[in-house]
Amino acid sequence: MSYNDRFIRASRKEQVDRVPVWYMRQAGRYDPEYRKIKEKYSLLEICKQPELAAEVTLMPVRKLGVDAAILYSDIMNPVASIGIDFDIVANVGPVIHNPIQSAGDVERLKPIDVEGDLGHVLETIRILDRELEVPLITFAGAPFTIASYLIEGRPSKNYLRTKALMYSEPKVWHELMRKLGDMVIAYLRAHMANGGKAFQLFDSWVGALTPADFRTYVLPTIERIFAELSDLPQPKIYFPGVSSGELLPELRELQADVIGLDWRVSIQEGRRRLNHQYAVQGNLDPTVLTAPMPVIEQYAAQIIDQGVSEPGFIFNLGHGLFPEASLEKLAELTSFIHTYSEKAIASKRKEEKEHV
Q1: Which tens digit of pLDDT belongs to each residue from 320-352?
Q2: To the nearest 10°, the Cα dihedral for 68, 71, 75, 80?
Q3: In the 8-state DSSP scheme, what is residue 246?
């Protein structure tokens, strides 16, 4: 089998014969084989074993037929290197043992040592670079999303402490953003140097901010991350997470290639808000996967029809897969996306030729 680069070409708004697809959290608990591995090892234990982490990354590529792999890792992995002590707790998420509460806590954060502390992640990327026949996407958590865990001490619904620090101690906040931005830049640069073919910056919870607060407290750091990595040839994705539709017009200066959309904004409207500058990725509501297959296909077809109306579209979910998703339905959906989009693209090209 030759290397499948549809995802790369779609990221660059180049022609593709069918829409590429991958799924956020595609290596996860919906897969019985993965659940068995998780009975023996925690997420962090898997990450520290490059051969095992590579195998878990490969599993959905083989089983689902997706057009890209995403590194099996966690957005919290790099924060251990800068001096944060945490665990990933089942049914809770990241729990921080030394949360950030003051200027002194921010001052104590060290620069990241990717080679020294996270060599296992780089080795996983190198293994996958040798074994994969689709592009490997690596990722990092964006500074606001990481900060929300570091300040709250665990996942939050209202980000009360995070916003309190942001509003009451803006100098401390901006210093935290600077340090986390430095961490992300070094981490992703190392990923790309070791075989990553694209990266995604996950800002899962930044939709909790107003556009004005996003512009003031977060966007300068996001713009700096993409500007400082703009020399890299690999495609760059920013996913501003759930409920982020109102933030999309703020992203027009970003030196990214692809913007991920959640399910609350249509592909057409997302493109309009982004001034048609970027390829877009998304945006099936993950809970649609609980529906019967004809309903799932109906939703997918609507998204594909909008997606193929312009160059630069990657099919994905509007957020990550959940444990109740069906492996069989996902494989069927992947096949449907490929078949349906191939016909839609061919039909569109035929129409364009007839109008010339």
Answers
A1: 999 999 999 999 999 999 999 999 999 999 988
A2: -160
A3: G
